[in-house]
Amino acid sequence: MYNTINIQGSNYKLNLSKYYLDGAEEYLIKSKQDKKNEKEYLKKAEELIEKARIVNILPENNMKLNEFALAKKPNTKFKDIAGLEKIKEKINLKVIEPLKNQKLFELFGKKFGGGIIMYGPPGCGKSFIAEATAGEANVAYFNVKVSDIKSKYVGETEQNISKLFKLARDNQPCIIFFDEFESLGQDRNQAIGHDKSMISQLLTEIDSLGNKDQKILLIAATNEPWSIDLALRREGRFGSTLFVPPPDFSSRKNILKIQLDNKPIEDIDFDLIAKATEFYSGADMVEICNKSIENVLSECLKNNQIRKIKTIDLLQAIKNKKELITVKWFKKALDIIYATDNTDSFNEVIEYANNSILQKQTA
Ligand SMILES: Nc1ncnc2c1ncn2[C@@H]1O[C@H](COP(=O)(O)OP(=O)(O)OP(=O)(O)O)[C@@H](O)[C@H]1O
Ligand SMILES: [Mg+2]
Fold first, then answer.
1. Which one of 70, 98, 215, 271 is separated from 53 by 20 to 30 angstroms, measured CA to CA?
2. Which domain holds residue 20?
3. Does residue 207 share a domain with residue 262?
4. Do 158 and 201 contact (CB within 8 A), yes or no?
5. If DSSP codes are grouped into helix, strand and coil, which group holds residue 203?
6. Residue 19 and residue 166 in one domain
7. Do the domain assignments include residue 94?
8. What is the pLDDT along the chain (363 residues), one digit of tens a residue?
9. Which of 76, 119, 124 to mutate to test the pocket of ligand 1 (most atoms within 8 A of CB)?
């Protein structure tokens, strides 16, 4: 489908216009096959041809924003994510099913729109889940990093936000994913100057989605949920907040199995490694697997002899791992949550810390 394209470097302009023209061609074919909707398809083809024309005359520095529209439709699926079942379930109900079964949701008086914020320590799968959500829903996906949106020029950030939402409206149904959301949605009381109007612009755009019955859903991810403006966390905006914890024992085991699948391994004691990696993030698990693979590979090259990856290699990688970023995150989170009297909003973080040996580590 013409929604998928991979764009690279200097070929960007060429690819972009080709992407539009390919889309136009698809609509032209459809217009011939489906006489009943011929006019509608022809109109869509014309629109895409016009877009291709505009791309060719646009200066390079105006191109960046169009990239959002071309965000690659991800192949990642929920089955690629180990554990986090509750989160998958909630996202399924809040995002995927409404996109797939709009009529059914309407029947039960469910208003379309709004979004969820995922928060938690780094490397525990927030961005991965967002990608898999778009993969599962099979809709266009706008992966927005704050650096894509923010500009040092007054007024330009607001313009970018409004352009992004326009592109999203043109590509419905779709999901917009705001990564590093704390920088975009920070508390207006702490924001200064044009950051304040940036948040207001974001609120206006989000609210207008609800009014106009648009098929656009929002996901945001952050490591600093306490910095996010409360107005953004209201129902109808980012109404649901989901805590994404570090992987549990069986998830760590599964991540190891996914990472070492099809690699030359010998008698790996997955239980032992999963036990030895409490508080490791998903990214940490990937890292110890990669380190082990690299070490064994370089040993093979040195000795000119092939040997398989063993439990000891993974244990060595664990031994070399220094401070865990998740533990650091929990320490900071608990400090902030208690200092700002925010225990109700972040109950899950406190519960997680209380139910684990983290207490000993943070003491
Ligand atoms: N539950 C999981 N199952 C499988 N792989 C995982 C899981 N969690 C994390 N990973 C792996 O770790 C990588 C990093 O995760 P991701 O980028 O989604 O973390 P994040 O929570 O968005 O981190 P950050 O806060 O730093 O942006 C993923 O690309 C994936 O390879
Ligand atoms: Mg991320």
1. 215
2. 9-63
3. no
4. yes
5. helix
6. no
7. yes
8. 333 333 333 455 566 777 788 888 888 998 999 888 899 889 888 888 877 777 665 544 444 444 554 555 678 899 999 999 999 999 998 888 888 887 787 788 776 667 899 999 999 999 999 989 988 888 888 888 776 777 767 777 888 888 888 888 877 888 889 988 887 766 555 555 556 677 888 888 888 886 666 788 899 999 999 888 778 888 778 888 899 999 999 999 999 999 999 888 998 999 999 999 999 999 999 999 999 999 999 989 998 888 999 999 999 999 988 889 999 999 999 999 999 888 888 999 999 988 876 554 544
9. 124
A 10 A CB-CB count for 135 gives: 19
Cα dihedral: 63, 66, 68, 71 (round 10) = -100
Tally of domains in the chain? 4
Report yes or no: 81 and 129 within 8 Å, Cβ to Cβ: yes
Q: Which residues surround ligand 2, an ion (CB under 5 A)?
A: 126-127
Q: Which ranges constitute the DSSP H helices of the chain?
A: 12-33, 38-57, 66-69, 85-91, 97-100, 102-107, 126-137, 146-149, 156-170, 181-184, 193-211, 249-260, 270-275, 282-303, 311-319, 325-339, 347-354, 358-362
Q: Ligand 1: does its nearest atom lie under 6 Å from the Cβ of 127? A: yes
Same domain? For 200 and 304 the reply is: no
